[in-house]
Amino acid sequence: MLGPRRGGETLHSIAARRICAGLVECAAFPATVLIMAVCGPPCDPAGLEQRLARLDALLAAHDWLWRPLPFRTPRPDWTGRLPALAAEVLALDDADVARLAGDDGALIGLAARHLPALGELAGLVALPQQAAAEPAPHAHLSRDIPGRKLAQIGHFAAAVAAPVAPVVEWCAGKGHLGRWLAASRGAEVLSLDHDPALCAAGASLAGLARPGVQRFVQADALAAHTGRLLAGRHVVALHACGDLHRALIEGAVSAGAAAVDVAPCCYPRTVAAHHRPLSGTPGLRVQRDDLRLAVADSVTAPPREIRLRMREAAWKLGFVALRRRVTEDHAYRSFRPVPQSWLKADFATFCRQLAAREGVALPASLPWGEFEAAGLRRNAEVMRLSLPRLAFRRALEVWLVLDAALYLGRHGYAVEVLQFCRRAETPRNLMIRARRQAA
After folding, report:
1. Rounded-to-integer distance, Cα 423 and Cα 432, Å
2. Residue 299, by phi and psi: left (phi above 0), alpha (psi -120 to 50) or beta?
3. End-to-end Cα distance, the chain
4. Per the structure, how many domains does the chain have?
5. What is the CATH number of the domain that holds 285?
6. Could you tell me the CA-to-CA distances from 40 to 36, 114, 340, 416 in Å, in that order?
7. What is the model's pLDDT at position 98?
């Protein structure tokens, strides 16, 4: 049952918007260690390390709950270990699934009812939030920047406050953030991106705004020599993905950047199969696939994208049921991403295309409706059985960000960690502010 509609979406699709990013292959601590508000004193490395250590311990002790993927395993082992929790989530209606999937606090509360030690997560992931966004310095900036990105930049710029040195905008795209800082602070900005078309478009926009204040350079952010551009500069990056934000942080330390303001993003986008903590402190061993949990939310995805994700998940699960029937092979086999065009046809066509690609011989006649319905049922179960692991998504993300912040803190920076905007603007709303201290 899809459930009642709310604002044009079913409750099932609302839940999907909040949860399905993690389903389809490819959430009270001593005051001395709380992350300080943006207006408060910087965090000391010892406080960061204590908080990181507690997250590390809780994640490691409960990895049996958050590592298994219900998409791959119909009944993860934890369902036998915590049968009451499994029964509770499987009994949820669509409205409750939607509510829980979008509320990290409620997810932690759900898990903590069955594992009381997890109640500590709520305090460990709590971070101060930037009070308000600043308005666009010029009307033309509002016209040139898409709506949600405009709001994100307004919040991020407010958290940056006054640049302490000439600015380098890392992985700049068209340089919207750099152009904002140039216009509002009079800052000298060097915007860096690897795409020549984006650099050219950004340079054109910069010329219309304040000629000569913002310059563009085409460069590979992952190249070792690019880090030299950061020496003595104030580096900003709004949503640098995976290896790109790691390269920024390591490059800033190596080159001696004056300041770093970075909002990390897309943690799984890394060439390394095994995650390497920057600070070297955490004991938790994390694989690249595990990092998908840290981004297993899609609160800002448009409804059409959500519907396609849901269809892809359900149809893949339907194909799994079909393949097991046809081949009598019950081992899980992963899928490469499928072309979006496949999702525009019907289920039978999708399965024939996928079977051809996967080398599965299908009989001429099959009960397609039966397998499609099986996929829909399995997807509903997957959404519910994924809720306990989603209770750890924010914890894993904060663990990643605190590790990076601690690395900067140990290399002579005064560091703060905060939410620069509400999650409704972007679920990747964590920001590291670092200022190099005088030797």
Report:
1. 16
2. alpha
3. 64
4. 2
5. 3.40.50.150
6. 6, 36, 47, 9
7. 86
